[in-house]
Amino acid sequence: MTPQALVHHLALQPHPEGGFYRETYRSPETVTCADGVSRSASTAIYYLLCDGAWSTWHRIRSDETWHFHAGTALEVHELLPDGELRTHRLGADPHQTVFQATVQAGHWFAAEVADPASFALVGCTVAPGFEFSEFELADTDLLLQDFPAHEALIKRLARV
Question: I want to staple 91 with a disulfide (CB 3.0 to 4.6 A). Which of 73, 82, 118, 142 is the partner?
Answer without folding.
Answer: 73
